[in-house]
Amino acid sequence: xxxxxxxxxxxxxxxxxxxxxxxxxxxxxxxxxxxxxxxxxxxxxxxxxxxxxxxxxxxxxxxxxxxxxxxxxxxxxxxxxxxxxxxxxxxxxxxxxxxxxxxxxxxxxxxxxxxxxxxxxxxxxxxxxxxxxxxxxxxxxxxxxxxxxx
Length: 150
What we know:
Layout: H1 5-22, E1 25-32, E2 38-45, E3 50-55, H2 59-64, E4 77-82, E5 96-100, E6 105-109, H3 118-140
């Protein structure tokens, strides 16, 4: 990862989050999953559907990272978010595609749905709510020591 890539990832995450807000999703960044992985963006729709967005800052970042297959068990749909100019043909057809920048994003392709099992959805929803509450509390109490990984 180059020195510029973390900044690029943060900007893409901001743009993705703004677009998801417009689509009616609540999103959390760097969400710890039960399998030990960390999703770049986990978003919850009003109807209870979950999506995971994996942010890729470059072709090299995409090619070096194959952990995204482990996210499929924790979302109804999986997306990749990339910047303009990223070769879209690299993104697997079963995955959604989002083109983003620091100000917003556009969903180019939705990808194949893979509905969560009810028990997994319930567990994920509880973790989502608890994680959001803990992060909100940290804003008013930065000394809070509660772990983020429930």
